[in-house]
Amino acid sequence: MPQMLTQPVARLDYALPLGPFSGPMNKAIGTLVGLTRSRTAQQPQWAPVAPLVNPHGVKCREGESEAEAPILRLLSFNIQVGISTRRFRHYLTHGWKHVLPHESRADNLRRIAELIASYDVVALQEVDAGSLRSGFVNQVEYLAYRAHFPFWYAQLNRDLGPFAQHGNGLLSRLEPRELQDHKLPGTIPGRGAIVMRIGFAGTEVLVVLLHLSLGERSRQRQLSYVRALIDGHERVVIMGDMNSHLTRLLFSSPLSDTPLVPANEMQPTYPSWRPAVALDHVLVTPNLSVREFEVLDCDVSDHRPIAVTIGVGGAQHLQ
Known about the structure:
This protein is α+β, with helices and mostly antiparallel strands. The protein has helices at residues 26-37, 90-93, 103-116, 139-146, 216-230, 246-251, and strands at 3-4, 45-48, 52-53, 72-78, 121-128, 151-159, 165-172, 178-183, 192-200, 203-211, 236-241, 261-262, 280-284, 288-295, 306-312. Strands 1-2-8-9-10-11-13-12 form an eight-stranded mixed β-sheet, with no helix packed on it. The longest helix is centred in the last third of the chain and has 15 residues, at 216-230. The termini are far apart.
């Protein structure tokens, strides 16, 4: 069983760390960071948390209450801490941007804010919550205010103090009925999931936002943990950077015995400049109908975002 944190999670509502960067240097850098943080494997832990509130945020579309909205617009996006990568060589030549601030990061964040503003729930991966490289700007908070989201949460997964605060982020126009911060198991510490219960269309949906490990063994442990989290919930959405092919998730992972189905057929999301591999996914239970699905043509990160519109009622899945 996962261990519940008995002490307050340090800066849990604000901070995030320098995790593995997407690309060929990912595993080496992630391993080095992990070894400097801990010599033992990450054990699963979790804590109930509260979202931060933006008083200027817009909750619902005009004329709708959040529980009665007929559709829910979802977006999952690995934003690579606001770094735009357009060639594989940029992982080397622009690698310093993962440590030091740069002017183009602010421009990229503004573009991301414009992109996400029309969605109801946004899952962010590889976000910095206030360190040297981000100009000590909490990127989740910035995007919440810029795109007028009333509820936001930043998850700390790897804390490198003033040098990097790296992890996941949640933006929502619907007030969470419950919010949990989960530290996923793994050989190298630093992966997490945010679990949110929301009211939608007269029912309740469990939304799991996550970023999984590159290593197969750790990823299988994490998926087993997620499998236990969703057990017993009727309506579920899982979305994020899963660092895995869709076929492996559906047929060779602990999720294979669940009713989860992909929001659409596999479409590549990485690398953003010439997508060839599908690493980012949205999975839903069959009683949630998928109305729209799109991998957005976007060059502000090294991943492309996935946009999905869902409703309650089942069987309407795009092909």
